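Minutes, structural biology subgroup

Action item carried over from last meeting: produce the structure token record for Ras subfamily of RAS small GTPases (Halocaridina rubra). EB confirmed the sequence was re-checked against the source entry. Recorded below for completeness.
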Amino acid sequence: GVSCEEVQEFVSSLNCCCYVDTSAKKEYNVDKLFYELFVLANLPMEMSPALHKRVCPCQPVQGTIGGGPRHRGLSIRRRLSEAYGMVAPNVRRPSIRTDLLILRAKTSLQLTGIDAFTDKKPRKEVSCVIQ
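Output recorded by EB:
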């Protein structure tokens, strides 16, 4: 096997790498791992999972459809538009892994000189000088 000291020594010799001993099963150092990932990827800390609130689907959410005198005078369209602000517990959302892969693709394209949106090399500016 490989000891933790050997891994730390190897990782310290690499650029843009860090070592975090973590366990998702035991919830050990998971927040520290995400913090290090966000620092290495230069991502804003607002995206960190540690700042997200856990939502319990069994708790009633304010502004839900129906119930109460508040919705008596609202049209059906207005009630449905309010529903889009609710948090759906089973909705598939982009993961942090997806964000990191997109970021990596953009930075690798920038290093090669290709525009990330058009997949073309940027034109060199040609200016006309009138004397």
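Discussion: Residues 96-112 form the longest helix (17 residues).
Next step: EB to file the record with the rest of the batch.
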